[in-house]
């Protein structure tokens, strides 16, 4: 089983990075092969909404996102991790998601409306961390994740969400959150 971790934080080694590290560790402990993408390191632009992918399912913008598409396509499970900025995902994560419009185009080209009601490419999970206690803190990020996975022909199977974690090492003072991330990774790949 192939598992992909998408690191959406601009801050290297922060809370969402550490939680995703643990989720991937849990997946490996259950026998999965893992790979990673660091959105903060990609040299890419956002979607141009040029329509170039509409007829072919291939993005016409030649940048580092071209190396991401095969990873998205070949993964059975994808974990997306991001801190919450203004009740949404980071701009780095969102740029990668927006560029997945090409994957949506593939889905539209290859499946009819009835076939699009089912997901054939796997499952996706969200790991999100926010500094506040806001009641709706994760709702925007979850909607974005749901439709990102929909574009990839994957089901969105929820995730884990942590409030009141802001300082870079805050997750280290909550070992139960790291264990929860490990358990999520292990459970996601276990039959």
Radius of gyration: 16 Å
Q: At the fourth CATH level, what is the homologous superfamily?
A: Flavodoxin domain
Major β-sheet, in short?
Answer: 5 strands, parallel
Q: How many β-strand runs?
A: 5
Oligomer: single chain
Q: Indicate the proportion of strand residues.
A: 15-25%
In order across it, which strands form the biggest sheet? Answer: 2-1-3-4-5
User: What's the helix-strand series?
Assistant: EHEHEHHEHEH
Overall 3D form? globular
Low-confidence parts, pLDDT < 50 over ≥5 residues?
Answer: none
* CATH hierarchy, class: Alpha Beta
Estimate the helix proportion, in percent.
Answer: 25-40%
- Determine the number of helices (DSSP H or I, runs of at least 4 residues): 6
List the domain count as a whole number.
Answer: 1
CATH architecture: 3-Layer(aba) Sandwich
CATH topology: Rossmann fold
Question: Based on helices, strands and strand pairing, what is the structural class?
Answer: alpha/beta
Distance between the termini: 11 Å
Quote the average pLDDT.
96
């Amino acid at each position: 089983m192939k598992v992909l971790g998408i690191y959406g934080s601009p801050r290297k080694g922060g809370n969402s990075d550490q939680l995703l590290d643990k989720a991937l560790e849990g997946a490996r402990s259950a026998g999965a092969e893992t790979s990673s993408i660091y959105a903060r390191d990609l040299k890419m632009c956002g979607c141009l909404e040029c329509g170039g992918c509409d007829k072919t399912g291939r993005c016409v913008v030649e940048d580092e996102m071209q190396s991401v598409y095969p990873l998205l396509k070949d993964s059975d499970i994808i974990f997306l991790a991001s801190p919450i900025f203004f009740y949404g995902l980071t701009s780095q994560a969102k740029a990668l998601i927006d560029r997945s419009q090409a994957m949506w185009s593939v889905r539209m080209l290859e499946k009819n409306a009835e076939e699009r009601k089912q997901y054939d490419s796997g499952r996706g999970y969200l790991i999100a961390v926010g500094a506040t206690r806001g009641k709706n803190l994760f709702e925007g990020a979850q909607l974005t994740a749901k439709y990102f996975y929909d574009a990839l022909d994957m089901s969105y199977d929820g995730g884990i969400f942590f409030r009141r974690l802001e300082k870079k090492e805050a997750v280290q003072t909550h070992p139960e959150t790291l264990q929860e991330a490990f358990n999520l990774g292990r459970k996601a790949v276990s039959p």
